[in-house]
TrEMBL record:
Residues 74-171 form the Methyltransferase type domain. InterPro entries: Methyltransf_11 (IPR013216), SAM-dependent_MTases_sf (IPR029063), Thiol_S-MT (IPR052356). Pfam families: Methyltransf_11. This is Thiol methyltransferase 1A.
Length: 242
């Protein structure tokens, strides 16, 4: 089975040669302008299907507000702001994303969520949050982002750095399937093509292992099956406390 999987993945990789060339010469930047339009549409569908899971995940956010203070949330890879409706009223929100073309949709989403205090949008990758001070954030949120960062471990190190002691990292990510399933098989076969479709997304990433090894003092992590196409059904959800 493994040899067949590798062979088919190589075939798909060969078929993707035109995409490899487009990426190599820098023309993939055009897709980065189109990608926010796609995500804006897909985020609405995702939220509709995952509403209860997101609601359950984010309902504990107020527990991480400092006594007498205001809850400060930083979202890595905020995209179009699909999580904003689930954040508690009055919290202070800092948004980051490496793609500046999301800001237009982000502004529209903020206008619909005036229960939040929107502080700023920072064009930055999860691996480099130098614009944010150490120990300054109550909660870091990351949903459907760790699949596409270049360095998961570095992103989690930055997350740990900016969180205050007792702060929490909330996550909801699609991940690699169980090795004994057809999901795992087809994830690996289609990965070369999916990388470009998802703007750098890795559907074969075992993200839970990185979170478990990130040095948090407490970790609440669940493996769940999301109601989507089978290759993106496997998800992890939870939060980790610094």
């Amino acid at each position: 089975m493994t040899s067949v999987m590798r062979f088919l993945s190589s075939v798909v990789n060969i078929l993707c040669i035109p995409l490899h060339l487009i990426h190599a010469v820098g023309l993939s930047g055009i897709y980065k302008r189109i990608f926010p339009i796609c995500i804006n549409w897909m985020a609405k569908s995702y939220n509709k299907k995952m509403h209860n899971q997101k609601k359950d995940l984010f309902c504990v956010l107020p527990e991480f507000k400092k006594a007498g203070g205001q809850l400060t949330i930083l979202e890595i890879g905020c995209g179009t702001g699909a999580n904003f409706e689930f954040y508690p009223p009055g919290c202070r929100l800092i948004c980051t994303d490496p793609n500046p073309h999301f800001e237009k949709y982000l502004t529209e989403t903020m206008a619909k969520n005036d229960h939040l205090r929107y502080e700023r949008f920072v064009v930055a990758s999860g691996e480099d949050l130098r614009a944010v001070d150490d120990d300054s954030i109550d909660v870091v949120v990351c949903t459907l982002v760790l699949c596409s960062v270049d360095d998961v471990s570095q992103t989690l190190r930055e997350t740990h750095r900016i969180l205050r002691p007792g702060g929490a990292f909330f996550f909801l990510e699609h991940v690699a399937g169980d090795t004994s399933t057809w999901t795992y098989f087809f994830q690996h076969v289609l990965q070369p093509l999916w990388y470009y479709y998802g703007d750098g997304c890795w559907i074969i990433r075992e993200t839970w292992k990185y979170v478990e090894e990130a040095g948090f003092s407490d970790l609440k992590l669940r493996h769940i099956e999301a109601p989507f196409f089978f290759i993106i059904k496997p998800h992890i959800s939870g939060y980790a406390v610094k």
